[in-house]
Amino acid sequence: MNIRVLIVEDEELIRWSLRQKFEGRGYRVTEAATGAAALEALDGGMFDLIMLDYRLPDTTGLDVLRHFREHDGDSVVIMMTAYSSIESAVEAVKLGAFDYVPKPFQMDELLLTIDKALETTKLRREVRELRRQVETEFGTDIIIGQHPSMRELLEVIQQIARSGATTVFVRGETGTGKDLVARVIHQCSDRAGHPFVNITCTALSETLLESELFGHERGAFTDARQQKKGLLEVADGGTVFLDEIGDMAAGLQAKLLRFLEERRFRRVGGTRELSVDVRVIAATNREIEKAIKEGKFREDLFYRLNVVTIDLPPLRARGDDVMTLARHFVDKFAREFKKPVTGVDASAESKLMRYGWPGNVRELRNALERAVLLCKGTVLTADDLVLGRSERSEFPWDVENFTMPPGGFDLDKLSELEAHLLKQAMAMTNKNQVQAAQLLNVSRDRLRYRLQKHGLL
User: Fold this and answer.
1) Which architecture does CATH list for 139-311?
2) Which ranges in 312-411 belong to alpha helices (H)?
3) Which of 237, 305, 240, 241 is nearest to 276 (CA)?
4) Which of 32, 116, 194, 404 has CB atoms 3.0–4.6 Å from 238's, for a disulfide?
């Protein structure tokens, strides 16, 4: 046990008595007989516990407490005085003292108070360390990539996190990192000190999902034996992430829309209106516009969600980010598995770059985790990589070395070729415009413009 204690007391006998008891417990003790000596000790180091006398020869304990709170908020302070009063106790607590004990004190009672105080110090530092770990794990630095689309994405995430936007819509293929984006937005915002709640809309039936979101009253349905708070209540002040919202049942969509519009709801079986302050981040990999046309998704809910939208690019459209991510995952899993794998060779790099990554970053991570775990050498080779059959096709022409045919070239043929490629892309993706745009490496807006130009929309 390496607990540091500062005793600020002008009476030498009390300092001696406390030192004997604390050192008997294995604590490291520093003494100060004046306020000036206490401030010097505080400026020179960190303490877990401060025993602070209310009256000192040169100042008051409250002045020392004010200085302490400006420099170190983790330690706990116990005030000691022979001049106990309600006013002084209230003032000390307001300034952040943990407790207030009158002299002469019973040592057994004092030690119980000290044990509680030290437990508070421990919890404070554990919380601070957890927050630091979360910031490291879910800060914007964890979103890896140098492709222009990713640099733009980071700027958008930072703007959204700093804004007061209460609804965010994240779109992208499976495995592109929609949940990670949601966590980063939460952690980079002023809501970071409040809960982040993640729920997948397809994981539960409509009835259970409604209960999870809004909570229920006792007796609202069979097995509802007691009142239960919903995730919206639990996340008050924080963020709720609704993944796969495109598959939410129609009845629940209406209730979610009402909540987003009014920020009020009722528990299942309840009559009282509840109000919470949460940021809702919804995500889907579905073509929502198609679902709206098919009557499977409410158009008004779509418009309410679509106020602030983030479109995540597929991995196959991010160029050299494939290798940037690959090297990151190799280093990560080599450390985790304690394997001497230092990178990938040319054959592995070629294989990684040719592959189409239908499962996106998640698939890349899983592939490299397996490869590093089973690798017998120090560098990954193509033979270490077990991938699917989705290799990207190269552009069929060498554009830079293309020469005009002797008889000339009909530019109108390019328009016919564009229309033909558009038809193929739409057919290959079952008319999913988001996926077709990704297949053609253009934005969805550019795709729609070209489809309209050729009368294909």
Assistant:
1) 3-Layer(aba) Sandwich (3.40)
2) 321-337, 346-354, 360-374
3) 237
4) 194
pTM given for the model: 0.60
Angle between helix axes 12-24 and 107-138 (nearest 10 degrees) is 60
Q: What is the CATH number of domain 315-384?
A: 1.10.8.60
Q: Buried b vs exposed e over 392-406: b needs ≥16 C-beta within 10 Å?
A: eeeeeeeeeeeeeee
pLDDT of residue 142: 66
* pLDDT of amino acid 298: 94
How far is residue 61's CA from residue 383's CA, in Å, rounded to a whole number? Answer: 71
List the chain residues with pLDDT less than 70. Answer: 1, 70-74, 83-90, 123-142, 389-402
pLDDT digits (tens, 9 = 90+) for 379-399: 999 999 998 766 555 555 555
Residue-wise pLDDT for 235-249, tens only, equals 999 999 999 999 999
Domain 4-133 -> CATH class: alpha beta
- The residue among 281, 379, 391 whose CA lies nearest residue 326 is 379
Q: Please name the amino acid found at residue 409.
A: F
Q: Find where tokens 């000339």 sit.
A: 408
- Within 8 A by CB and 6+ apart from 326, the residues are 344, 349, 352, 364, 368
Given a contact cutoff of 8 angstroms between Cβ atoms, the answer to whether 50 and 27 are in contact is: no
As to burial, measured by CB atoms within 10 angstroms (0-12 exposed, 13-18 middle, 19+ buried), residue 51 is: buried
Q: What's the CA gap between 268 and 337, in Å, rounded?
A: 47
Instruction: Note whether 337 and 377 are within 8 A (CB).
Output: no
Task: Give me the amino acid identity at 351.
Answer: K
Q: Answer whether 266's CB lies under 8 Å from 214's CB.
A: yes
CA angle (351, 357, 358) in 5-degree steps: 150
Q: Is 318 exposed, middle or buried (0-12, 13-18, 19+ CB in 10 A)?
A: buried
